[in-house]
Amino acid sequence: MSAFAPPKSKKARGTGASSNGNQKDYFKGIGNIQYKPGAGADEVMVFKHYNATEVINGRTMAEWLRFSVCFWHTFRGVGADPFGFPTIKRPWDDGSDSMENAKRRLRAAFEFFSKLGIKYWTFHDRDVAPEGETLEETNRNLDEITDLALELMEQTGVKLLWNTCNLFANPRYMNGAMTNPDAHVVAYAAAQIKKGLEIGKKMNAENFVFWGGREGYFTILNTDIRSELQNMANILKMVVEYKEKIGFKGQLLIEPKPKEPARHQYDYDAMTVIAFLRTYGLQEHFKINVEPNHTTLAGHPYEHDVVMASVCDMLGSIDSNTGSPDLGWDTDQFPMDVKNCTMVMKTVLEQGGLATGGLNFDAKVRRESTHLNDMFIAHIGAMDSFARGLRSAVKIKEEGVLANMVQQRYASFESGLGAKIAKGVSSLEECEDYVKQNGEPELVSGHQEKYESVLNHYV
Taking the model in full, what pTM does it have? Predict the structure, then answer.
């Protein structure tokens, strides 16, 4: 969730897009994406597996998957990287930070959502509206842009999965936002969050996300960690209080990431976030928004944080992307690995769905993928991958082979001393007596290769 940084200039740098605010058909020649299950290998502008209205395991695919497009990568990404200038130029975007340009981007986005058939979107406050010279001007810009967004949502039926605040791009946040050592900066972050919650309520957002890209440290030498964690917790308590005060019904979410841009981020992974929430008494108000690319950056398997958050009843939503395991940074690629998608959807099925959450494509086309079609192909491919993952997960659940194998592996906890341990009613003395009576336990194979082979049967 970290690629977008607002340009410094508010003046247009070119005239590459029409100034007609009501211009339509930004994607000329591209119609609504259709479901065509028999399509050939080179037919990439159709869904081959995702059939939105198909009922599977009691719900439609659309209800299980709840796909969402992120605004920042898809409509603010320009293909720049630390070693090269922007490569992506969109016909509706003149490169300026003007309100006219912001409105064109928004209209183009909703045309894209509609043609793709996705019913949710997500954004940062600074993605959609330019930052002004003062907080008041910034808030007026955001009000004006979100008024237009509401009109477009009404016209298209697209809903807001979640909104969030960009608390990392502006230089004021170079030392953190909620964890900044300067109280003035912390107050500014709080004021920005206040407006973000008001926008979430205004737009009926189903969730509100916190991603702490600058909430961490580069060196412990200049950092009072206890103070920073306490201040962050205090701001989040203010969030809970204000959310209830204004009647915002969305679920609050925190998105873990171990590093980048900070050397170490306090929201390192799902279990770290859960420990933080429980330490400061916030666990009843927040859930986790897992981004699997962040999970692998933390040194875990792709599905790890999804599973861990779910086991702790804290999985709220998923930023569906992937990274290159051989690289040490957040590449935000589209998820095309069906096995990974199957493991995620297996967990989603087991917990009965994502409730108000969804699968948000926090992903960007590659720097070299500059054609407008690439925007569609990337999302279509990822949606098909998750549709295949859903189908595989449903088969795994229905046939029960894996579940039975796992149940048998833990069968010793269903009776006798094992059952007492599982219920928390045994003691160390009883365990010692059991071992004295029964001697050394037998070695029992974990059959890892067998489990992996069984999974391959379904994928």
Answer: 0.95
